[in-house]
Design brief:
- The protein is an alpha+beta fold.
- Helices cover 54% and strands 8% of the residues.
- The chain contains 18 helices and six strands.
- It has a four-stranded mixed β-sheet with strand order 4-5-1-6, with no helix packed on it. A two-stranded antiparallel sheet has the order 2-3.
- The longest helix has 29 residues.
- The radius of gyration is 23 Å and the shape is globular.
- The protein binds iron/sulfur cluster (SF4).
Length: 399
């Protein structure tokens, strides 16, 4: 078995009460069956009972509701009821860490398992994780071989070797092509996946896939693809991109805006995007955008590359195990990159500044709001696009 983790994985430590964007906020905190059963005989901590005018005889389950067949903690104005005013968890202080639900216990760590691999990842929805990532010059992975069985070894659930080869290779392109932007690397990755899809190879024909991937891995082939993508004569009009990214942002944020979630961040950004939409026709919106580009330039390009490399490593393989789903995940990453850049522009337009600390906050907000499960990503793409797999031109338009 091979266990991989980002080079900064072991340095992560939750900063708990010092965290100004705690994960207990505005989020769905799932309560698994095992935890729910154990909460049945655990009385509410005194402070929680008193703060909510409840009897001391009531149990922790009093704050659990069922939604879409799964259980979750009932939030009070977006806040976890077990959190005290100093940002510490009453469940931990009264019953210990082991009493937390799996979600709280493991966050922001997530284990991704396929074939003989276990990827130990840290999600970018936690600011402390983003800080660790941004401290790196290049995203790198530590790998160790340990004895143990493969995770999935049935005929129905087999992750083909060619997908593993792609997952192990694609993120390394970011570090290898230092002068190429994160967006252009992502476009090249999508180009390769689209080409593999278009070949319409039988899923069982692993040899054919391996042969084609071998051709792509040839540095002359990659260089040719990147040269075509970065050719100045084929660049997308910045107004078209602006209009599309502004719409994408409103589309993704409208649900949070209407529900008042993360309102401190989403509300001003969403309302500014609406205002900008009305300023497109007379050219004011694009003028503001060009001013932002001239002042900020590619100052944060290294950060985009770290994010793209980390996500290419951690998010490409999902349980459906096919090339189309891998392409879907690349599309989602492109949406996240487009939104991040557009969010940064709107933030700068509203406040007149964009500091490193603010960027870290924006990344964490963005990954909390776009951290959909795989089925939800597919549903979103089905609802919004004619075909779940885009034409290459749409990827080129948004990033
Ligand atoms: S967001 Fe990260 S640092 Fe903050 S409380 Fe949660 S795990 Fe800890």
């Amino acid at each position: 078995m091979i266990i991989e983790r980002p080079s900064y994985y072991d340095n992560f430590k939750c900063i708990a009460d010092k965290c100004d964007f705690t994960c207990c906020r505005d989020w769905t905190i799932a309560v698994d069956d095992c935890t729910f059963a154990s909460w049945n005989d655990k009385k509410l901590p005194r402070q929680v009972a008193e703060a909510n005018n409840m009897s001391l005889d009531q149990t922790l389950t009093s704050f659990v509701e069922t939604h879409n067949e799964s259980r979750r903690i009932v939030l009070d104005n977006g806040k976890c009821p077990f959190l005290d005013c100093n940002g510490l968890c009453h469940i931990v202080s009264q019953y210990g860490e082991e009493c937390l639900s799996k979600t709280c216990h493991t966050y922001p760590r997530e284990d991704i398992r396929f074939s003989e691999y276990e990827l130990k990842n840290l999600t970018l929805s936690c600011k402390t994780v983003v800080k660790h990532l941004f401290d790196q010059s290049v995203f790198s992975v530590l790998s160790e071989k340990v004895s143990g069985d493969s995770f999935i070894d049935t005929e129905d659930e087999h992750c083909p070797n060619y997908l593993i080869e792609l997952q192990q290779w694609l993120y390394t392109l970011v570090g290898e092509y230092k002068d190429v932007s994160a967006a252009d690397i992502l476009k090249a990755v999508f180009y390769i996946l689209l080409d593999l899809i278009e070949q319409d190879i039988d899923d069982e024909n692993e040899d054919k896939y391996q042969e084609l991937i071998g051709l792509y891995k040839n540095s002359a082939t990659i260089k040719k693809i990147l040269d075509t993508i970065t050719d100045p004569s084929s660049q997308t009009d910045s107004l078209d991109r602006f209009v599309e990214d502004n719409e994408l942002l409103m589309d993704l944020f409208v649900r949070y805006y209407e529900q008042g979630k993360y309102s401190e961040f989403i509300k001003p950004v969403f309302e500014k995007a609406e205002e900008l939409e009305g300023l497109i026709e007379d050219g004011v919106a694009i003028e503001l955008y060009e001013k932002y580009v001239s002042e900020i330039g590619d100052k944060y390009e290294d950060k985009f590359k770290l994010i793209v490399a980390e996500e290419l490593w951690s998010s490409l393989i999902v349980s459906y195990y096919d090339i189309e789903t891998m392409a879907v995940k690349v599309q989602w990453l492109a949406i996240e990159l487009a939104l991040l850049k557009h969010y940064m522009f709107i933030h700068y337009t509203i406040y007149g500044h964009l500091t490193d600390e603010e960027l870290i906050h924006i990344v964490a907000v963005l990954f909390r709001t776009t951290g959909y499960c795989d089925d939800d990503i597919i549903e979103y793409l089905e609802d919004c696009f004619e075909d779940i797999i885009w034409e290459w031109g749409y990827m080129d338009l948004i990033i």
